[in-house]
Amino acid sequence: MRSSAARGIHAVAPPAKSIIRTVALSPGTKFPRIALLDESGAPAAPADGETLYALFKTTCPVCELTWPFLERIRQVADGGKLRIVAVSQDNPAKTRAFSERAGTRLDTRYDPEPWKASNALGMTSVPTLFRVSPDGTIAETVEGFDRKALEGLARRAASLAGKPAAELFRPGENVPQFKPG
Question: Which of 24, 63, 68, 97 makes an SS bond possible with 56, Cβ 3.0 to 4.6 Å?
Answer without folding.
Answer: 63
